[in-house]
Amino acid sequence: MYPAKFDYHRAKSIEEAESLCKGNTDASFLAGGHSLIPAMKLRLSDPGALIDISGIDDLKGISRDGDAIRIGALTTHAEVETSDVVKDGCAALSEAAGMIGDPQVRNRGTIGGNVAHADPASDYPGILMALGATIVTSSRSIAVDNFFTGLFETALNDGEIITEIQVPAIGAGSGAAYAKFFNPSSRYAVVGVGALVSKSNGSCSSCRIGVTGAADHAFRASAAEEALNGSDLGHDAVEAAAAKVAEGQEMLSDLSASANYRTHLCGVMAKRAIAEAASEA
Fold first, then answer.
1. Domains and CATH numbers, the chain
2. What is the pLDDT of residues 62-107, one digit of tens each?
3. Are the beta carbons of 190 and 265 closer than 8 angstroms?
4. How does strand 134-137 pair with strand 162-168?
5. How far apart, in whole angstroms, are the C-alpha atoms of residue 128 and residue 81?
6. Closest CA to 244 of 261, 220, 227
7. pTM surpassing 0.90?
8. What pLDDT does residue 157 have?
9. How far is CA 70 from CA 106, 164, 168, 211, in A?
């Protein structure tokens, strides 16, 4: 299928992109295009103008700034996967990026575009939620816990551009992991669970568990975190916490999986992610 007609603009700077957006009220930003272009072809998205930001160098690159890993919004999934900075500071994020789609998608799709699109089955939301990331825009910083608000909905304002993703580096005594059950045709997450576990004196001193694919947007599994905190991280403790991952959430039901099956998968993927994170801690 072909998209509806639209105007095309190629921005050379963040300021120019924002200015163009103000002059086109129904505009969309184009980064890698792996989510937006298919949606336009299916007429699920119909922007009157596309503002191409893919050439803005200020939105690219990965660096370490103290305890934070700074990832430019236009950094591709393949770059996140292969970056030594990411591998050294947060290997779980590198591994999660390597699970996205196929090589074509990973070499074109961007972390900023993925996060802004907020597909409920995307991988990044789950692992970023677990890691306690911060979404930085041209005007403010948004904690990831407050970023994903609904089905393809975020806390971004109209015309607001994500400039980078900041992820805390994993320190000594902590470990993180991401596990997912993927759709065999699209490799989107039917359910994906990210876990960050910190140990002290052999027990869990703190943890974060992020879930994607299960509900209409990524969420923190608060009940599971509470159950895991203070535990010995043994088999029974992990089993009990994993059983609470879907608690209080309305599960999606679609052609990929029923709500009941997603509830089951939440527990299975959580056990794998928690166990791996605990072993890394």
1. 7-52 (3.30.43.10), 60-168 (3.30.465.10), 175-280 (3.30.390.50)
2. 999 999 999 999 999 999 999 999 999 999 999 999 999 999 999 9
3. yes
4. antiparallel
5. 14
6. 227
7. yes
8. 93
9. 19, 7, 9, 22
